[in-house]
Write a structure and sequence with these properties.
The protein is α/β, with parallel strands linked by helices. It contains eleven helices and 15 strands. The longest helix has 49 residues. The N and C termini lie far apart (71 Å). The N terminus is likely disordered.
Length: 392
């Protein structure tokens, strides 16, 4: 039926009437106008015809033996396969009550005998075009649904591929680290890595790629390769960021950039060295409960040929904790007016959460903070969120 609409072919019309003269007259008139016409003498016969040969429209007499047109229309409307076929009643019953009953049973239109054939042709043309347009929309919707499903499968493959790039804390039993990553979209733009550089040295790297398009998946894949190359014992944190910036600048599209935070931890010296590149400042919690931000200001990566970044070395004690996160967390908390995006408010909320959960194991702290954020956002976060907790 939809193909006819594309090819400008006339529709198949079923004429149902127990009056042979009326059937012949309507059939002749419709054929002259180019329509393909089928006929039936009763409602039961018409239902059988429709089952064998679906039609584009039914012209239906109301007063017939065995089954009235109203009764046939009710049955037709209850059939999920043929229920959308337009039905035009042709009848001598012309009261308002009769017309109301016709529309109530599912009729699309109502013409009173004797029929004005010019009007009938106009009504037939209108309802055939409406029906074919509706079917065309349904086909387009079906095609769109299939495309969406296909794209969703591809995005799921992208997401699964990204997850394989992320380090699993369970693979680093010598350090007490926990991570939660919640992407807002199938293709997340946040990235983190944990690198064991030597027996006593570890690197914790976190990055946030601007945008949420599929290109971010490519960039996070590149970040994995870059951490494998530049997060090592021989390179200082500043050298690592410089090399990251140079490398990112070579393949990032104009306007794209990356923020990053990198922490180098020496177990034998109980010392951390931190550098920031436009990334939210880490939060340090001492074993006695003091909570503070570590101010490390730096240029974002991938925009400028050279960058300037602060670095800090801090001695840590057993039981101290460090929290690294992306701005999806610090800007995700809805403020008093219910609007998110206030970074200072979000950091304050994060500090409070960290302080309240000091007695919990680090993995529970991280899980609870993310769960709390999702609850406050009513289950829907607007940006990717990563939180990494390290207990020294």
């Amino acid at each position: 039926m939809i193909d006819k609409a594309f090819e400008n072919e006339k529709a198949d019309i079923l004429v149902v009437d127990d009056d042979p003269i009326m059937r012949a007259a309507v059939r002749s008139m419709l054929r002259r106008d180019g329509y393909n016409v089928l006929i039936a003498e009763s409602g039961l016969e018409a239902l059988g015809v429709i089952t064998r040969c679906p039609v584009d429209l039914v012209l239906l007499d109301c007063m017939m033996a065995e089954m009235t047109g109203f009764e046939m229309c009710k049955i037709l409307r209850q059939d999920p396969e043929f229920g959308d076929i337009p039905v035009i009643f042709l009848t001598a019953k012309e009261t308002s009550k009769d017309k109301a009953e016709g529309f109530a049973t599912g009729g699309s239109d109502y013409l009173v005998k004797p029929v004005d054939y010019v009007e009938l042709l106009a009504r037939v043309k209108l309802h055939v075009e409406l029906s074919q347009s509706r079917q065309l929309l349904q086909l387009k919707k079906q095609m769109l649904d299939e495309i969406i499903a296909s794209q969703k499968n591809r995005l799921n493959e992208v997401r699964d591929g990204q997850e394989t790039l992320l380090a699993d804390p369970k693979n680093f039993p010598d350090v007490n680290v926990a991570v939660q990553y919640v992407p807002a979209h199938e293709a997340g733009g946040d990235f983190y890595d944990i690198v064991r550089m030597s027996e006593n040295d570890y690197g914790f790297f976190m990055a946030d790629v601007s945008g949420h398009d599929l290109g971010t998946a490519y960039i996070t894949g590149c970040l994995k390769a870059l951490t494998a190359s530049f997060v090592n014992e021989a390179m200082s944190v500043m050298d690592t960021m410089i090399m990251m910036n140079i490398s990112l600048g070579r393949f990032l599209d104009p306007g794209k950039y990356v923020t990053a935070s990198y922490v180098k931890f020496s177990k034998n010296r109980m010392e951390i060295e931190i550098i920031g590149a436009g990334h939210p400042e880490p939060i340090l919690q001492s074993a006695n409960g003091d909570v503070s931000e570590i101010k490390v200001i730096g240029d974002i990566l991938g925009i400028h040929e050279t960058i300037q970044c602060d670095t800090k070395k801090i001695k840590v004690n057993p039981g101290d904790r460090l929290f690294i996160y992306t701005d999806g967390l610090s800007e995700g908390y809805p403020g008093p007016e219910g609007v998110s995006g206030n970074r200072s408010f979000g950091v304050r909320c994060l500090k409070e959460q960290v302080n309240q959960k000091i007695s919990l194991p680090i993995n529970e702290v991280v899980d609870d903070i993310i769960s709390d954020l999702i609850d406050k956002c009513n289950g829907s976060i607007g940006d990717d969120v990563v939180l990494m907790g390290i207990e020294f």
